[in-house]
Amino acid sequence: MFFRQKRLMFCMAAILVVVMFAAAGCGGSSAKTVAEVNGQAITRGELESYMNILRLFMPNLEPMLSEESRRAAMEPDILDALIESTLLQQAVEELGITVTDAEIEELYENYKIQMVQGMFGSEEDFNKKLKEFNIRESDLIQFIGGSVYSEKLDAYYGEQISEEQIRAFITENPEYGRKPALLELSHILLETGEEAENVRERILAGEDFAELAQELSVDPRAQNEGHSGYRGYLGDNISEDEQMLWPEFMAAAKGLVEEGEISEPVETSDGWHVIKLHKRTGTEELTFEEAREAAVAAMVSEKTVEYLDTFFAQAQIDTFL
Q1: Minimal CA–CA distance to 291: which of 181, 182, 183, 174?
Q2: How far apart are CA 91 and CA 307, in angstroms?
Q3: pTM, whole model, 2 decimals?
Q4: Is 120 exposed, middle or buried (0-12, 13-18, 19+ CB in 10 A)?
């Protein structure tokens, strides 16, 4: 399951990197091979270029990648990300899909405009940063433009999906045929179940939820008022299918129906929660056209992951760090 398990922090969400850098210099240590992927070499120069670009885009990594000992410790994980990028390119080419330099450069030019305006302020400052981090623009073009490979792979599998298959998928996966309910929630987080039960009883007896949240919750957010003035506020657009919150928490929240309803104490990895439902927006059935886009995306993702898992599992990978 290489593709799913090796998705590292070094791969930015906005950019699926597919990198085949030109070697950074000739001869010496930069030409040393640090990995071979199905017979294709990755050099020390390519790995150094990759790390420098990560420093540019991920400032939180800068202190670690600037310090020689910490940089060396991180190299194996970063090399894994570069290997995965190389494998993705090879997997796309194996299907006979062509990616041209012109397509890569076009994507880069579009992204560069946003990047200069949003991150650097001016092209002059942008160029200064490239020089500071020892990054050649040709390497950056390949780094950013590499997402063309993943886009083309998605398009390849998308073209193979029929309308009948989409309808069958939505029937088999009814969650794609509806817009889930949205919940507006607050919570009080306690350390023990006994404390949580006591707080719930006090609320049911008439004490103010927000005041108890401010006084007793161990969640720091309880000290801040949400936009609606609630303490312990979590938001007003929490999907009942939300995956980013504790699953036990969401299971209990989904069971709340009436506005103002208080949950039984719920245990998660962070402690014990007492949840308050402020508002619930009901589920909405979608038309086929409304559901189609999300269903196709899910089907394409399933097909690409299956293909890449197989391709990656069969790959011959040797590392020499």
Answers
A1: 174
A2: 8
A3: 0.66
A4: middle
Nearest to 251 by CA among 237, 259, 263: 263
Mean residue pLDDT of the chain comes to 87
For residue 93, give the amino acid letter. Answer: E
Residues 256-291, buried b or exposed e (16+ Cβ, 10 A)?
beeeeebbebbeeeebbbbbbbbebeeeeebeeeeb
Distance between first and last Cα of the chain? 23
- DSSP classification of residue 120: I
SS3 37: strand
Helices marked H in the chain? 2-5, 44-57, 62-66, 68-94, 101-115, 123-132, 137-145, 147-158, 163-172, 193-204, 209-216, 247-254, 288-313
Q: Are 280 and 294 in contact (CB under 8 A)?
A: no
Residues 6+ apart with CB under 8 A from 275: 185, 186, 187, 249, 252, 253, 256, 262, 263, 266
- Residue type for 178, please? R
* C-beta separation of 203 from 209 below 8 A: yes
For 182-192, the pLDDT digits (tens) are: 999 999 999 99
d(CA 247, CA 225): 25
pLDDT over 60 at 288, yes or no: yes
Strand partners, 268: 271
